Amino acid sequence: MVPAVSADCSSTSFTPLVVLELASDTKQEAIAWLLSRIRDPHQNGGIELLVEQLGLGDGGSEKENPNLFLVGAKWQRLLSGAEEVGLFKEFSDGSMRGFTCANKHNFKHFEGDGDSFLSMAECQYIIKHELDTLRAKDETHVPGHPQAKLYPGKSIIRRLLSKGVLIQVFPLHEKEELKRLSYSWYQKIKLSFQPLDDIRRYYGEGQALYFGFLEYFTFALVPMALIGVPYYLFDWENYDKYVVFAVFNLVWCTVILELWKRFSTSLAYSWGTLSRKKAFEEPRPGFHGVLGFNPVTGREEPLYSNTKRQLCVYLVSLPFVLLCLYLSLYVMMIYFLMEGWALSVHDEEPTFWTRVLLFIPSIIYAVVIEIMNLVYRYAAEFLTEWENHRLESSYQNQLILKVLVFNFFNCFASLFYIAFAMQDMALLRQSLATLLITSQILNQIMEAFLPYWLQRRRNKKMMRKVQKRKAVAEAELPLAEQVRLEADMSTYLGTFDDYLELFLLFGYVSLFSCVYPLAAVLVVLNNITEVYSDAFKMCRVFKRPFSEPAANIGVWQLAFEAMSVIAVVTNCSLIGMSPQVKAYFPESETQLILWTVAIEHGLLAFKFILSFIIPDVPKHIQIKLSRLEFESLEALKKKWILYLVWAGPPLPTGQSRKLHGGPPCARGPAQRASAAVRSSPRTPR
Amino acid sequence: MVPAVSADCSSTSFTPLVVLELASDTKQEAIAWLLSRIRDPHQNGGIELLVEQLGLGDGGSEKENPNLFLVGAKWQRLLSGAEEVGLFKEFSDGSMRGFTCANKHNFKHFEGDGDSFLSMAECQYIIKHELDTLRAKDETHVPGHPQAKLYPGKSIIRRLLSKGVLIQVFPLHEKEELKRLSYSWYQKIKLSFQPLDDIRRYYGEGQALYFGFLEYFTFALVPMALIGVPYYLFDWENYDKYVVFAVFNLVWCTVILELWKRFSTSLAYSWGTLSRKKAFEEPRPGFHGVLGFNPVTGREEPLYSNTKRQLCVYLVSLPFVLLCLYLSLYVMMIYFLMEGWALSVHDEEPTFWTRVLLFIPSIIYAVVIEIMNLVYRYAAEFLTEWENHRLESSYQNQLILKVLVFNFFNCFASLFYIAFAMQDMALLRQSLATLLITSQILNQIMEAFLPYWLQRRRNKKMMRKVQKRKAVAEAELPLAEQVRLEADMSTYLGTFDDYLELFLLFGYVSLFSCVYPLAAVLVVLNNITEVYSDAFKMCRVFKRPFSEPAANIGVWQLAFEAMSVIAVVTNCSLIGMSPQVKAYFPESETQLILWTVAIEHGLLAFKFILSFIIPDVPKHIQIKLSRLEFESLEALKKKWILYLVWAGPPLPTGQSRKLHGGPPCARGPAQRASAAVRSSPRTPR
Q1: What is this model's ipTM?
Q2: pLDDT tens column, B619-644
Q3: CB contact under 8 A, A662 and B590
Q4: Which of residues 82-101 of A touch B (CB under 8 A)?
Q5: Of A89, A177, B193, B563, whose CB count within 10 A is highest?
Q6: Mean pLDDT of A6-17
Q7: Contacting A residues, span 576-595, partner chain B, CB-CB under 8 Å
Q8: Where would you find the membrane-spanning parts of this chain (chains A, B) (predicted)?
């Protein structure tokens, strides 16, 4: 039933693209059923992919999971899949268009059979899409696994995943390509931009946009860092001279976000994700409910009451978040107690050690903040999972909202309190510096070194095992070992944590860097190491992720913009509190506050007007998009006129010929098509 | 050449829909050319409409313009036109879908030939669209009119309009329908909603949305008016007790705008304009430039440098607007001088007459404001015309922006000054009342009675003429006379002024009604008369306008939302200034201001969050829209699968058959279509 396992995997007749790992206790009948469903032609409800079991390798130990399957496809199948998923590719005239098989020879880089037309990441994305759309026919459960219930139209892969029969689905790395990419990305020490196009080709648009944003953000910080250094060097004690810096901050954070929108649109256009339509979103794997009929699709699928979910959100999640915020406030108060105690010790008998002691509370607080963020993160994931969102996108939005609010509060509450309630700029500077440096160090350790170290240990174990078995020193691992090695690698969990880190750094810089101008310098340095460590992680530590088509950074753009609004308010308040400005209003504090508020309102209004005036899409891309739209409108019209011209002999339904050459409305689609066929040889193209 | 003029127009073989009025000195060859272009079949570049000259009537005087033409079309032509313009109609399952001739029998109310399927307004819209797309072929100018230059692809109607050869294009009224509509709309005295669906059927979606908004706005004001009356009656002198009212105001203006969005979406969905795609926008008739190639369409057409236009906007229009604002400020200062003088006269020797005198400056100022608004309006139109915008939409946006800024400033500057600089609530109340009442009275006179009176005079003259000629007292005018009468009616210039008036009223209510609670009552009364006078105007005073498909109130939604943000700020400040609130902070004014600002920021943030949380599209419509989208995606997929199943015998290009039943990518569109034809008889539907 299951095809014979070929010991040497180089004998597979196709390029393996994606690996399916089934649990080792999966029943043979379930495997046979799944493989035949994957291989079945379309008319039988299959998806026509190629699939083979991976060999155990020479003398494979019985501890290894034998149920690893390699999935691939013929080139023609991939091309038609590319049309189905709505892939955009470069056309011969340089514009980006939706790929169609009928038109394939008019696309750039389409040569011969087109077997090098799609990148491997695109092929893997197509395979994943096809696997996701493999649906149950009339099976009531997975053969041999009665607990894995099915109903007509249910995605089989999602059910297998949610029941733990399918452990993971992941795309394979390309060793040559990866070597080339990692060389140009992080191994070559040079001053140049990141190879965004190569990153996109290997990891997809979502990843490339993150690295593009990271790079953009770093470059945007450079002027700030350059201004910050002399400020820090020559005005260290005059921290009240920060008005100029605050004004700069204010303009800066508005402008860079607007420009990023334009830059990201350019990237998305050149990668063909800008005009791409979103596919219909399936329920996420963990979603459960009572079987019913979906009002949109009319299919039988689990339904879950929206009211029930809203109740969960407002009666459980919201109070929980508020409780966490209260807890965070409580911890902050303990920090201030410690701070006060350290200060009193220092004041009693100032020595070098008491000066060091002054920094200790901040450092402890910074570590506690990181730990609280981490713990809260898990709680938020659990809660959001429990809210049982139907779509992955709404799950993500709810999770991001929860995490953002808490992290913002947790990281910045103490700074706001010091700045506005205590109005102690010296403490603010010290606290900011300690928080920033501590959290950066912790992050780098948690994010890069720890996973790398774990991975190294795993790799070494694997290498030893292989060498023991083979007893020859081979540079290249055989495919089977490579697949097993990759299956053991950590899974990359998406760009969420990376963006969150950038968001908090953006907050530190835009909110308070006027009191501690070195913040921008620190963040620039952190970002540079972040580029390298993230690149390293992606290439060496993690399994290859499936590429995610993305046209922008999504909800993060909104988060950064919200932060920039808060930055305007904060910076205006800091300016209003500065001794320099206070000197202008010697008598009346009321006047000062009123002016500050008025200017702040003016700036906010100006910010909104600016975001209206600056178009999100650069002119030249706007023209290209309008041209495509215009062409498709014209094509529709032409089709219609052509149809009128070649309408052919009168039809039995007499009334439709009343008008000379008029549109034969009464015809069905079949006649319409036949008219089109008759006309096509004579049509001037 | 020109077809014989039939004296009695009842002999036209088609229902006349649209009238073209050419200048009386138009050359005969131009007329003959235009008519033949309109009548020509599609393959010759014509638009296949029916057109006939209107008779002069019995004993028509030589003073009358003979060049009036009636345009109509066969039913099949209109149906195919409906498909071309992308009209949405109700489908048999109750959803709204784009009309297609192939599918016509599945639409609701499609009976027999479908000759009552389209409303007259829809037919007229289709005719107008067809006329607009009538393009020059290789003519270099209009025959007989060498000054009216043409180039291939130029819209003929637009050129004729801009050169004054074509005086006007307007749709005809339906007398029966109009009688029925006007009865249910304004003649029947009753407490009921306006017949929005009938209005939409007769005047189109743009008009109906305006009346819908007017009605919605009036109802939304009712609770405010109900609260306002007891406030006014029992607290007249305690105008400092307005905190509750200000808070109510604040919540009210946010909520009603959010709810309106949902309501208008429901309306637009039920009228089929919500999902309708915008057609490609042609240059506006008055646009001029140097002939060049449009980068979007590739057509030869006039181009005008964007930089040049930007320079015009920023170097001429902007300074002009600022100058006007300065002038308005100057007039305001004169008003305050007058006010001060009147007050001093009253204080010297208070009598009844000096008390009346106190109101005189406000009344004069209100009249001056209205005059300035009117004059500025013309200036703004002239300037925007001179800026030479390519698209009607950008012309409209620029004009609305200019007019809104000035009107807002002109109407509210004095009130803001009184409220915040003078902090004189008694004067604010008096000034607000006078401004509001005077401007309402002036508006009603200018808008309804004046045009009505002019129209009556014209009507009477016409009736006399007709009766003189016919010498019989006929109740019904013959078609020819009716057309001439309508051609003489005033042209309705769109909803701009109506929305502007509502915008200013919304401003009066939301900004300051807490100090003068009767404002809401006055606005409700004004709106009720406005409904009747607007309805009357539309039915009796103006030519029928072409229907404008609209999915929302467009840029006005933005304007009202901006006003509601300003209202939050204003109301918070008014609350902060109230003696009641001041009593809570007896010592420190600074504390009071800081609290006010903090609460105001919180409210603004809450407002933005609210506008995110409340979905713009009601759930049940969201489901219907998703269903349509899902169905179209499924249809595409099905087409593709069907195509795979019935792919037929192997093709010469061998490589495309490598895959069993795979998609034959190598085939051209012709074979593809032929496969579809072969499959169609066997396809289960």
Answers
A1: 0.79
A2: 888 888 888 888 877 776 555 444 44
A3: no
A4: 83-84, 101
A5: B563
A6: 59
A7: 589-590, 593-594
A8: 208-233, 239-260, 311-338, 358-379, 399-420, 432-454, 502-525, 592-614
